[in-house]
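Workshop exercise sheet. Pairs work together: one partner reads the sequence aloud, the other fills in the structure field after running the prediction. Swap roles for the next sheet.
Pair: D.N. / O.F.
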Amino acid sequence: MESDRVKIGNVLHPVADVDAAVRFYTDIFGLATMFVDGDRYAALDAGSTTLALAGPTEDVTGGAPAASFKVPDVASALAVLVQGGGSVVRELERGPHEIRAVARDPWGNTVVIYGPQ
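Structure field:
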């Protein structure tokens, strides 16, 4: 996998109430709202990355905050992660805007791997 083609696309924060979380992060930290997809998901501009607020229906990590790595090929990246000692939490699936998988690194940290459909 070419590291110059991989980036952290967002940091995922599962929340019970997307609207309340958007208000909190915009009021407290001054983050600008990039877009809101109903009560499912919101993206906030956090400078060099995006704070992704995932409502209950879009919480793919089981409540765990996670760095989300944007890759050109999700299946290949997931295979490399497993070969490197990581494990799969949720197999490759088609989300509303991307293909994604949830995994853990060898130390138990949750990560989301996602890419274009």
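Discussion prompt: The first helix runs from residue 18 to 29. What would you look at next?
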